[in-house]
Amino acid sequence: MTADRNAKEKAAESEAGFSGKRLLLVEDNMVNLKIAEMILTCAGFAVETAENGQLAVDMVSASEPGDFSAILMDIQMPVMDGYEATRAIRALEKPELAEIPIVALTANTFPEDVEAAREAGMSAHLAKPVDVQGLLSTLQSVHSQR
Length: 146
Known about the structure:
The chain is an alpha/beta fold and 146 residues long. The chain has helices at 3-18, 30-42, 53-62, 82-90, 95-98, 111-120, 132-144; strands at residues 22-26, 46-50, 70-73, 102-106, 124-127.
């Protein structure tokens, strides 16, 4: 099997597994947001976006259980950062909303940053720039844990 064919088959498998799933992508940098949105859409996700943590909290609070299968959360944002937003989502009264997997998507990659994400209640931590296969593997992992 050629590498090109193998890559296409993996992409098709990912798309099939993520088809119909909706993500909330929280990112204040429009270039990063558009790149991540394109990657996620190509993998089969429906993507909603928010440009800061407060908007993300508002969107999750107003959603119904099952609306979002995961949240990709930047850390450094205006209005409300990713840690604050994660803590606010984890504190929501509806467990189905409070327990949505939240993945940190950040340039902050020191061990203390990974620990801070975990302490805030995030399910996983991914470094920017995004490794596409790592992103899809992480999303598959947090979905299978639910």
